[in-house]
Amino acid sequence: MAGVYTPFVYWAQRKDKLSLKVDLRDVSDPNVQLDEYGLTFRAYGFGAKGQHEYGFQMDFFKQVDPEKSMYRTTPQGVEFMLMKQDKQWWGRLVEQEKRPGFLKVDFDKWRDEGDSESEAEEEKAKRLEAYRQESLKKFEEEMKEEMESRAAIKYLKTWWLFAYNFFQFMGYSFIFFSCVIRYMMYHRDSFKNTWEFTGQMVITCQLMSFLEYVHAEVGLVNSKPLFPLLQTLGRNFILFMVIYPEELMYPLPVVTYLFTTWSCIEVVRYPFYLFNLIGKENLPAKVFKVSQWLRYTIWIPLYPLGFLLEAYCIFTAVPYYERSNKFSYQFDKVRFHYPLMMKLYLMMLAAGGTMLMKYMVRQRRRKAAVKRGKERERSAQEKAAAHQHID
Question: Which of 39, 162, 221, 256 could form a disulfide with 194 if both were Cys (CB 3.0 to 4.6 A apart)?
Fold first, then answer.
């Protein structure tokens, strides 16, 4: 994370739970993304480097239960209580074998599987354990109250995201099937009425897509705000500054091809988001796997095709704007020539498209790495079970 420092994180474990403490003072409203495979943390606070933005990301050695796990913010840091899915001792906290430099052992809370104490210290250990259990109980009660207060917000968040994704899915489905079915019925004659049938829906869906940047910015979804913003601004420039103002663009085949490509991407993307909100455990395994594969695969041909069609739209529109002088102005001796700006935008399109595709490649690799990690863990468990059976 450029410009973001990494705080020290102290951890300890019991057979059924993990405790983490982020050494960061004066933290308010941290951005925490926790799932069964890892934790992403980001917040402003006072740490080892002073008052800065701090953050880290870790993939767990095994799975935790995010629904039963809790965290709270204290003046001394951010404390996590993570419940293990399988009650067993972990060999390490993170998936990678080499421990990150920011990760430290919390020796005050540490316990090993075979720990034993001398009789001289046994009574002291019991008193200390009783105190810790009391503190833990109080901590759990505070976390329970806090989680209950967040339950209503989480409920509203889930339903809002579901409604948004469902609306976008239905809108882009209408655009896609309208373009495809009309072409099958009327062939090239369908091009001249594409805008009449789908233009208003494309405008509505593209304006709504700005909410994806807002969702990422406020933390409703676990995504970097830059990439939905780039995609939304790029598409809306083509729609509102190239196609919409010039009626001569409406019947051109490139407009139909572009709308079909955009909507084909989205009728795959939004169902994947809907399935994530429903929960893959509530869906047939094959349905979720197919949806996930399409989400992280279909963009490979369609994103480059979409960028080429957007560039072709600009090349096609430049002569129209040259003749009409729309959006071109003369300020004394300085002239703003809009067709020249459209040509300059092509360089921005190439740069933004490259960034977006690199981001999608990283996302695809990350999903593949998580899948390989699950397969390795499942294979190890099967080997261990077979070994126990032989013994």
Answer: 256
